[in-house]
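User: Need the bound-state model for flavin-adenine dinucleotide:
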Amino acid sequence: MERRYDVCVIGSGAAGGVVASELVGAGWDVLVVEQGEHVPGGAYLVDLIPGYETARARTMTGEWTEEGYPWTACCVGGGTRFYAGVSLRMRRVDFDAAGHVAPDALPPAWPFGYDELRAHYDWAERALGITSDGGLDPQRPSPPLDLLPAHRPSARGAALVAAGRSLGMRPFPVPLAVASAAFGDAPACADLTACTDYACPSGAKGDVHQRLLGPLAGAPNLTLRTGLKAVRLVQDRPGHVGGLDCLDLATGTRETVRAGMFVVAANAIQSAALLLRSRSEFAPDGLGNDHGMVGRGLCMKAGQHVRATLAEDLPEPLVAAGGRYATVALTDHYLDPDCPSGLGGLILETGPLDEDRGNPRVLRVECLVGDQPMASNRVALDWSALDANGLPRLVIDYRPHPLDLERLAYLRKRAAELMTAAGATRVVTEPMDFPLGSAHLHGTCRMGTDPRASVCDPDGRVHATDNVRVADGALMPYPGGVNPTLTIQALAHRLATSLVVDGKP
Ligand SMILES: Cc1cc2nc3c(=O)[nH]c(=O)nc-3n(C[C@H](O)[C@H](O)[C@H](O)COP(=O)(O)OP(=O)(O)OC[C@H]3O[C@@H](n4cnc5c(N)ncnc54)[C@H](O)[C@@H]3O)c2cc1C
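Assistant: Bound-state model below.
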């Protein structure tokens, strides 16, 4: 007899890992379909990217290229395997930024506010082991849990703290999914590298493979299939999906897996692509796409790095191999009446470029603003151009909004002032390329109560279906101005909790 799982989770990343582990814990028979493979501790993302599928995308100036990047990372654990672990909660304003977006934007308000997500943020911080901000984050929406002490600032971070304070700003320690002390079975961080782009071999980084999926290996009710690409959700009657067509990437064979419930958690670009590929007689334009909303509202954050060379060496030597990527952040310009639209964003310490490693005079920060959700910014498929797997070419059609570029320019100026206060002799801005694809992916299957203006209901259920949920950043009507993963995980936990309450399908 063909096995019919209780639930099929598509993607084993930040969102899929949370949903799968919660449902396994609740006794569901769970299948996880993951396109990527396990990556060993010590692997670098840069070595894997050449093997990844690309997308057609626009450059910063709007020209098309075939080198778009539709991933965070394609592997067990998804982007978390390689992430820097920056784990900030979204700010209260991020849940309703309606007063801060341009008139041509899609409505940015979430269908619920911060307080609805708060308990799920608490869960995520406890499950992953998020370090404290020391109670110093002035914009934090609720007090810190203080599970693990804040990380000590790096030499770069210490310089930013001193400079920020001299300008009357309130720098604070970045909450990280990187253990600052032993956490359960995990050791404290050994400072091997800067964490980002690197699969932590020690277990100190709280990626979902390490914290959630790995410990479930051997559970009889969890099946993790790697190297299997979800191609198309198959409706066997209107509004009900009976199977998922998959492609085994090693053999090129096709198979259909069966489940009572399907949870799509493939990243906001790939989740939308899967729904768009799921055309049928009941859904000729793709599943959930009756009103042409699937793929629209793609947000990737407007972000740019600012780098400075200081007159003096930093106060202590940099850790030779790395030192954590981000230890200090500033949100003083998050809500700032002088910033265009009144909504600024985050200034975050970031690790040096490879060529600057070991140079004790280089400071670097990232400026991040949440981008306007635009109907014209979208994921689409080109059915006339097939990729190597015979599937329609993935298209990332994204142009930065002028207002977002103005907001980013404002934040850049504030970052330059900070660098100058730290003793910079030379401040340079690095080129931007986020329209090609970013690690911050949101908004392509927006949740809302109006089926004509959204793809999913507030619980992630694809409108007019009874057994398909979207669980990742695709749900987010507005991306917020902080790194997204903790919010994606809180959302995924909220969704998993609601599935458990509903009971097995
Ligand atoms: C180098 C780097 C540093 C980062 N640093 C931070 C940080 O410090 N803080 C932060 O908040 N965020 C960070 N991020 C972003 C973070 O990784 C993402 O926000 C997060 O992983 C997104 O979660 P997700 O579940 O939506 O998607 P993912 O984690 O990308 O998981 C999706 C999974 O689905 C799989 N998949 C895709 N399509 C299919 C398909 N058709 N069939 C089967 N499987 C499929 C993918 O292989 C992947 O494993 C970073 C990302 C990178 C790459």
